[in-house]
Design brief:
It is a single chain. The strands form two sheets. The chain has a 17-stranded mixed sheet that branches. A two-stranded parallel ribbon has the order 15-18. It folds into four domains: 2-34, no CATH class; 45-154; 187-348 and 355-393, no CATH class; 403-492, no CATH class. It starts with a helix and ends with a helix. The chain is of the alpha/beta class. α14 (403-418) packs across α16 and α15 crosses α16. A hairpin with a 4-residue loop joins β2 (74-78) and β3 (83-86). The protein is 41% helix and 23% strand.
Length: 493
């Protein structure tokens, strides 16, 4: 009996691991327990030097690893491992000439690979580096180009992919932003929120869709029930739009005057609900799904295009209108979340237009948006779950219960199955089997057996499984020892 149960448990495990889809499910649930996080490499000058030494040398380019220490000294290492320490700008120039003679002679391009702390925390000091040198940041075994800011005191932008320039101070925040840009996004888990007084007080787990097109309809939510209302969208991406007025989001419902909500309150509600919140700053405060003065139903521009993107970065870039590169600022991390702001890159050019011209242009854009029934996006703010937190939520079988609790419970159930003979013996003493004659009818007898089985499988089996396994192992070892002793006596006689 025990051997059959053990074989069944192992067969179930193999079946779960078999096949591509099941293997992906297994990795999704338990991959984090096996060390999903990448080792932290590329944080020191030595790691940067190893990276450039192992990478293929580009023709006409000289690579140097550079670090600015806390005491203000520059440390430089070339591809051959030769090092130079400089105490000032003059010595820095001498060190670059010594370790990169081809660049000094003008026959090669100088490429400087910086440590994360040098590029992010001490960006203002990079003005001491040659203006014609190419700069990059090396982190976690990857190289990211750097773009120098216009102001001498500003930190450089870190180029991530083709569409993003990131400005942060902490390496952990930059690494998290890179993971956010590259992580996949499921279009079925993207919700469009419309703030509507008198609307629903709680979101359903799945949005309602339009027949035929299968397009998700905006979810109407009463702004007075944010905490409870967002709970149904845990782990999902929620889009909300409106006009920003300082630290408040102004929205216009289908009827009545404009309302406003503190952005901080919105972010706190999203944090408590484990929701990925994306706030779209628009010129119009009208909400998606409402009707304009031409009786057209308003919709967020570029949403359909964004929903076809595979990664979160491409999704956000499409929401922003795909008008060149987006600048990501912020990177504040706390309680398993990261807050960022995204704006289109404004290139350096002639003086800005006058305020009157800006007002006229904004008013005209608002009129065009109203007439077309499309709500244009000016900028984005996002309060996102970190990738690690998102994975923990995605691995949950039962929403609302931490994955480690569920994994521990399942582990105890499996242990209880392995020790089922011993657990059954203990259970029979604690709760003897029902006798049908003690009940007035078969229905009552069946309900009693069902209640006994539920308590056994959900409570007693995981609780008693571990000590029962120890007892069973001790019994098996004792039996084997008795057999070996009996065989020894038989051989001796």
């Amino acid at each position: 009996m025990g051997l059959r149960i053990t074989a069944a448990v192992f067969a179930f495990s193999l079946a779960l691991l078999g096949g591509d889809a099941r293997a992906q499910t297994w990795e999704r649930w338990f991959g984090g327990l096996l060390g999903q996080a990448n080792p932290r490499t590329g944080a020191s000058l030595e790691a940067v030097a190893r990276h450039i030494a192992s990478s293929k040398a580009e023709s006409g380019s000289v690579d140097l690893a550079v670090e600015l220490t806390d005491v203000g000294h520059w440390r430089i290492v070339n591809r051959a491992g030769e090092a130079f320490t400089a105490a000032g700008d003059a010595e820095l120039a001498q060190g670059l000439r010594t370790l990169a003679p081809d660049a000094r002679a003008g026959t090669a391009k100088l490429h400087l690979s910086l440590t994360p702390d040098t590029a992010l925390r001490q960006g203002a000091s990079l003005r001491a580096l040659p203006a014609d040198a190419e700069l990059s940041l090396v982190m976690d075994g990857r190289r990211y180009p750097l773009v120098r800011a216009a102001g001498a005191s500003e930190r450089p932008y870190v180029v991530v992919g083709r569409d993003f320039l990131v400005e942060v101070r902490e390496r952990e925040a930059l690494a998290e932003i890179v993971r956010q840009i590259e992580r996949p996004v499921d279009r079925s888990l993207v919700r469009i929120l419309a703030l509507e007084p008198g609307g629903a007080t709680a979101l359903a787990r799945s949005p309602t869709v339009e027949p035929g097109s299968r397009r998700a309809r905006p979810d109407l939510l009463d702004p007075g029930h944010l905490d409870r209302g967002l709970g149904g969208a845990a782990g999902q991406v929620v889009l909300v739009s409106g006009r920003l007025d300082g630290d408040r989001l102004v929205f216009k419902a289908s009827s009545g005057p404009d309302g406003s909500l503190a952005i901080e309150k919105f972010a706190q509600s999203a944090s408590r609900a484990d929701v990925n919140l994306v706030i779209l700053e628009t010129s119009s405060s009208r909400q998606p799904g409402t009707r304009n003065w031409l009786w057209q139903r308003m919709a967020l521009a570029n949403v359909d295009k964004a929903l076809g993107r595979a990664s979160l970065g491409a999704f956000l870039h499409a929401l922003g209108g795909e008008s060149g590169k987006l600048v990501i600022k912020g990177g504040t991390m706390a309680n398993g979340r990261i807050d960022i702001a995204l704006r289109p890159l404004i290139p350096a050019g002639p003086a800005p237009v006058t305020s009157l011209t800006q007002v006229v242009a904004g008013t005209w854009a608002d009129i065009v948006s109203e007439t077309a029934g499309s709500i244009a996006t000016l900028g984005l703010r996002a309060s996102l779950l970190t990738v690690a937190r998102q994975r923990e939520i995605d691995r949950r079988i039962i929403p609302g219960i931490p994955f480690m609790v569920q994994a521990g419970y399942l582990g105890l159930l499996i242990v209880g199955l392995l020790a089922l003979p011993v657990v059954n013996q203990w259970w029979q003493r604690l709760w003897p089997r029902e006798v049908e004659a003690d009940y007035a009818g078969r229905g009552g007898f069946a309900m009693a057996r069902l209640a006994r089985g539920i308590v056994f499988s959900t409570v007693f089996l995981p609780l008693a499984g571990l000590p029962a396994l120890f007892v069973r192992l001790a019994t098996v070892i004792a039996r084997l020892g008795g057999r070996w002793r009996a065989q020894g006596r038989h051989v001796a006689t």
